[in-house]
Amino acid sequence: MKTLIVEDDFTSRLLLHTLLSRYGDCQVAVDGQEAVMAFTRAMEEKAPFDLICMDIMMPGMDGHEALQTIRALEKEREVPEEREVKIIMTTALDDPKNVVQAYYKGGATSYLVKPIDRGRLLQELSLLGLLDRDRDED
Predict the structure, then answer these.
(1) How far apart are CA 69 and CA 89, in angstroms?
(2) Second CATH level (architecture) for the domain 3-136
(3) pLDDT digits (tens, 9 = 90+) for 46-64
């Protein structure tokens, strides 16, 4: 599984990297602009990401804007819906406005509230078909 972790907070970035690196290649970006650049480069190299875990609240280009940009790039390149990158939005905010904006306006695949729980994250990855829960769970 090839993953892009988009997080401006060092501790959260380290936690996600620690949790996800055992399941494959993990790259990091510290804001939405870097995320879009990494996503574009991966598509151009014909090695797209399987998963993006992206914080919503970041300086500069936030997670919502990066999410919409990534989905627009996929549409522009005519990526079939079943091949779109799975995007889990992460945030400390558990409010309906952010959920609605991420899912219905942005096209997020999933939404997790921080602090990220290992079991909940693995459950979400399994539901998204990104890992075999029985094989990968310790």
Answers:
(1) 14
(2) 3-Layer(aba) Sandwich (3.40)
(3) 999 999 999 998 999 999 9
